[in-house]
Design brief:
Pfam families: Glyco_hydro_15, TREH_N. The protein is of the alpha+beta class. 33% of the residues lie in helices and 20% in strands. The radius of gyration is 25 Å and the shape is globular.
Length: 612
């Protein structure tokens, strides 16, 4: 898919491409500017932050700071596309005089010395296509939260941007003085730009650039070949799978909710959060998607991250399980505001860290057990679940029994109110249900019977408390009257059968009351910040899956096709979409949304045997 834009004043947008290597990632806009990127990993301070600091010099389309721009003089068009089945982005810049050039952007990733080579480094490779194009390079990294470098030093082929806590090095075979002073120069031969950690490049620049490009291309195409994909929507699923992979921090196995912070869920709402962390709630859905794709290595790494959390929690003696974790499980998630960043389109505050880490969210126990269940049944995994892990998970189950009917902040992380959320209770039931199944496969008849009995007991209590006879549907809280979109999941979790009339009635009620065109609200009630103004995209995919489950398969397929049209020009999704215009809002790219796309496509597609 190739997308074209014409030269125009720069406006912040989520029409962005993503590149990365499972260590770092960067976002590139429709003018081929790098507008977001954190070094040396996803959750560190953004070196390129102009996406959330939309300040532009007078008469210039390039931000004052936090950007890496390669501007073609006189450019009138920019055509962009990914190299097929890769995370390498091509931007072809041209003017009306026959001049054209290509920028290839990527983060090196390939096997070297029998291990993955994924340095905290981006590569920009520029080559002439036709005419005599001229470029102006603008490299304005931030070191610290929106702070400009303390010092800039240079060598014959590099520039160092020095800050108090980090130094970034740019190595290039382009004229360094032209780069430092943003002086235009002609592209008469290929130029390469390596930017990342302060390490010298120990080989010839052009040769290294070509080698990294070729090997990274081969890596991604080999990885895509290994995917199990549906017959229909292959391109969409491949792009979603690559994006999900790019959101994984391979060193620990964690998968972040998104690569950005503080992109508002809707304009003017202050729903600006930092999503560069790993949420336990996402675990089941992510593992489900990875399993369907056949990406066993990424899945096993992620399961390793989850089971390490189990170990740490058991050893700590903590009363509550945190709902989210840093990508290395260490450090704080203290939330604070950054006043010197202007915000996405000026929408403040810009937040770093996430206060939800201190909330009580009781669905986490079920999320961990559900995710870990895979390791007891999947014979492809090198480290299958064993008795020791089962013993740790049983502690999670006991905690689920203790809190299944207790108030919490719930799946939507309410900040000012705690109630007993139906979803949290059902997830606690799911922990008991899966523990019974695990016990069965381990030959532990006594534990199987115990957990089966507890699951039955919890199910009886929960069902009575979340079914509203007067409304004729399940409700979002114990003894409540309102709906929320997580009720769409109770059949997938196995709490009820898809053909249960109560579930069908609930799905239909959600469609009527929470549906807004092709989108679904998380809930229709007022919360700490008012009412919802955008549709949460994962909820739309949940609704598609629910329609399919209750037999409305043609309707589900048609709706899925329309939701796919909400993707940006690069095939990516954020967290939310405007109910009227469809414009994307919320942190980007949103793992949850890409997982929802994958799972729905797998569910709806004809299988390969039926296709021919």
């Amino acid at each position: 898919m190739t997308v074209t834009t014409t030269a125009s004043p720069r406006v912040a947008s989520l029409d962005l491409g993503v590149i990365g290597n499972c260590s770092i990632a960067a976002l590139i806009d429709r003018r081929a500017h790098i507008v977001w990127g954190c070094f040396p990993r996803f959750d560190r301070d953004p070196v390129f932050c102009s996406l959330i600091d939309n300040q532009i010099d007078d008469g210039d389309a390039v931000p004052k700071k936090g950007v890496f721009a390669i501007e073609m003089v006189g450019m009138t068009r920019c055509e962009q596309s990914y190299l097929d089945n890769t995370a390498i982005l091509s931007s072809v810049l041209s003017d009306d005089q026959g001049n054209a050039l290509e920028i290839l952007d990527f983060a090196p990733r390939f096997v070297r010395f029998e291990r993955f080579f994924r340095p905290p480094q981006l590569v920009r490779r520029v080559r002439r296509i036709s005419g005599r194009p001229r470029i102006r390079v603008v490299v304005k990294p931030c070191l610290g939260l929106g702070e400009e470098p303390d010092e800039i030093t240079r060598g014959s082929n590099h520039v160092r941007f020095v800050g108090a806590d980090q130094t970034i090095r740019l190595t290039t075979d382009a004229p360094v003085s032209y780069v430092l002073e943003s002086i235009p120069f002609a592209v008469e031969k290929p130029f390469s730009f390596f930017i990342g950690s302060d390490e010298a490049l120990r080989a010839e620049i052009e040769t290294t650039s070509r080698e990294f490009l070729d090997k990274t291309t081969d890596y991604w195409r080999d990885w895509v070949r290994s995917l199990s994909i549906p017959f229909e929507w292959q391109r969409e699923v491949i792009r979603a799978a690559i994006t999900l992979k790019l959101c994984s921090f391979e060193e620990s196995g964690a998968i972040v909710a998104a690569l950005t912070t503080s992109i508002p869920e809707a304009p003017g709402t202050q729903r600006n959060w930092d999503y560069r962390f790993c949420w336990l709630r996402d675990a089941y859905f992510v593992v489900h998607a990875l399993n369907r794709l056949g990406t066993t290595r990424t899945m096993e790494d992620y399961l390793g991250f989850i089971t390490n959390i189990v170990d740490t929690y058991s050893e700590s003696g903590a009363e509550h399980l945190p709902p989210l974790y840093p990508i290395t499980r260490g450090g704080e998630l203290r939330e604070f505001e950054v006043p010197n960043l202007a915000g996405y389109r000026g929408h403040q505050p810009v937040r770093v860290g996430n206060g939800a880490a201190t909330q009580i969210q009781n669905d986490g126990y079920g999320a961990v057990v559900l995710a870990a269940t895979q390791s007891f049944f999947d014979r492809r995994l090198i480290q299958p679940g064993k008795e020791a892990l089962f013993a740790q998970l049983e502690r999670m189950g006991e905690r689920a029994i203790a809190v299944f009917d207790k108030p919490d902040a719930g799946p939507w992380e309410l900040r000012e109110k705690e109630v007993v959320h139906s979803f949290s209770s059902v997830m606690c039931w799911a922990a008991c249900d899966r523990l019974a199944r695990i016990a069965g496969t381990l030959g532990r008849a006594d534990r199987k019977e115990y957990w089966r009995a507890e699951a039955k007991r919890l199910k009886g209590i929960i069902t009575e408390r979340i079914w509203n006879q007067e409304k004729g549907h399940f409700v979002s809280t114990f003894d409540g009257a309102d709906l929320d979109a997580t009720l769409l999941l109770i059949a997938e979790l196995g709490f009820v059968k898809p053909d249960d009339p109560r579930y069908i009635a609930t799905v239909e009620s959600i469609g009527r009351e929470l549906g807004r065109g092709d989108l679904i609200l998380r809930y229709g009630t007022q919360d700490d910040f008012g009412f919802m103004h955008t549709g949460f995209l994962i909820c739309a995919f949940w609704y598609v899956d629910a329609l399919h489950a209750i037999g409305r398969k043609d309707e589900a397929k048609e709706l899925f096709g329309r939701i796919l049209q909400r993707r940006n020009s690069f095939g990516l999704l954020s967290e939310d979409a405007d109910l009227e215009t469809g414009e994307l809002w919320g942190n980007f790219p949103q793992t949850y949304s890409m997982v929802g796309l994958i799972n729905s496509a797998m569910r709806l597609s004809r299988n390969w045997e039926e296709a021919f």
